[in-house]
Amino acid sequence: MSRPCEFRDLGRMGYEAAYALQRELVSRRKAGEIPDQLLFVEHPPVITMGRNAREANILFSREALFASGVEVHETDRGGDVTYHGPGQIVGYPIFDLREWKRDVGAYLRAVEQVIIEAIGEFGYEGERVPGATGVWVGPAKVAAIGVHLSRWVSSHGFALNVETNLDHFKFIVPCGLNKPVTSLRALGCSASVEGVKESLLAAFSEVFEIEIPQPATMSRLA
Amino acid sequence: MTDVVMPQMGESIVEGTLTKWLKKVGDKVERDEPLFEISTDKVDSEIPSPAAGTLSEVLVQEGATVSINTVVARIGEAGAAAAAPAATPAPAPEQTSTPAPPATPPPAPKPTPAPAQGEAPAPPSPEVLPPESAYSGGGEGEAAGPLSPLVRKMARENNVDLKLVRGTGAGGRITKYDVEQYLASQGSGARPAETPAPPPPPTLPPEERRQPAPPPPARGEAPKARVEAMSTMRRKIAEHMIFSKQTSAHVTTVHKVDMTKVAKLRAKIKDEFAAHYGFGLTFLPFIMRATADALRSFPIVNASIDGTNIIYHGEINVGIAVALDGGNGLIVPVIKQADEKNVVGLQRAIVDLAARARSKQLKPDEVQGGTFSITNFGSFGSIFATPVINQPQVAILGIGAVEKVPVVVEGDAIAIRSQAQLALTFDHRLIDGALADQFCQKVKAVLEGWSEAVL
Fold first, then answer.
1. Nearest by Cα to B422 from B452, B396, B449
2. Looking at the whole model, is its pTM more than 0.80?
3. What pLDDT digit, counting tens, does each position of B105-129 carry?
4. Which fold is adopted by the domain B131-189?
């Protein structure tokens, strides 16, 4: 039987606001008040530092970044430094993994699988690189993953570059790796952000065996 | 004693890094309370305590990576808390209350949807989180799910018999909300102070509501306009400009300055200068040098207003407005103590700051502390403009393009001169027009009388 999951597309939302919402949902999920949640969001330009982030992987001063419209936030997800910005689909699954597999490795692989299947629909072959969590197309990373667990309830998640301004990755050493970053658009894919969201949702349902009710997306109503 | 081990986080995970202890030795912990944090690959996890008691021993320090099932700490019996510092006044009551009895299914009445709260004619804004009643878990026949620590805690604190609480959570599970509803229904019987109001449905922060959504373009035709959110920098510039216009009484005065002497000097030495110093020589450092002189003579132009006080700045720190590539905003790095630098030093500072402003490598203190600003719109071909004051400063000098013009000179002859128009915008609250013009005349005098020997 599929487990229920509530989905919300937050549209464009600031990192801080989305972070607060995540925390709220995590605590309600832990209290058993709500079923699993899946959030999609696009952030204004922001650099986030995971728990293991090294300041050296941000290449510019915060003022310089601020001057170019990029904020910097510290967060409690795993992983190093990453960038979020318009044209990038950020997914925050708030899943109680005890009701799934109770296995963080399997969870990371499943999130990768979701992205691989979603971009597969557009004809791109996403790959895993052992020891480098994320989804890669050829030599470049198209999606980054970083997760926080609190009593097996997940937060944070993945960031898939659809038509992200890749110039902004020059501000950082993404995930501390000196590997190139790419986007579906840079790979020659003309899919829209909305289109990719749809295939991501379908892939989520399948990979995690969850049932996502017809979403009342904000973007559709707005 | 209960051993706390590095947990098994998944089949493929053989070790974890202990990143943070959330409790210290001697601290009391509840069962399921977060005790430490670990990091594995891309996942950070909070690990709850396996037992209630006192953290008596920490065996693995922060930063260490250990394999799973390694004992990282020990938790003593709750009774051992007595051995800890005299902070515990009374015997811990939870000693007696063993964890809530295995939850039996509540004698569920018909599973009606949760009343009132969810049914208020709430505006169906999509931005409001769905009320809890919106989710009805399946599996009616199942036993109520495991009780959450929060529910157990609330029940314990409020002496609630959980058998009497109807669960509306997933699978009939009792939630915090259910307990709150139950307490509310018990009225003043429960400790009033503890009767929690049902939480308002959380809404998104207001600024997020204002986010305009781009109008969807009609199918098949090109959109007539494009809507795009301002960058942070653009927002800041917009705020600053309006703030400045609302703060200061802007007046601009324009003076023509004969730059012939400076132009000749520059023409004569610029090749040698570039070869020697590795950067070109422009008019800007001459004007900045003259301005610094004038600021020394007229300290009120190098001041700020604070309420009804005037702050005369001890240092002359001159900001130069730098346009970022492609009209993508501007930034005003500051040359500190500009009055102590000669033309070469000023030119070097200008080149350095402008280059680093464009490559976004300025340090924070390099854009702070300005006491006066210069904007060189002449470099874009403008003859003169009326710049906006960079708050909290009280004046800004705009430099028009230096160009050769015919002028009437002594003896009513017409001569060709290099001329620039300098526009000073000043805050008329503090600076009178006559003083502003004297200031400009001082700048003009220094530039027109430039002594060749001085660089």
1. B396
2. no
3. 444 444 444 434 433 333 333 333 3
4. Dihydrolipoamide Transferase (4.10.320)
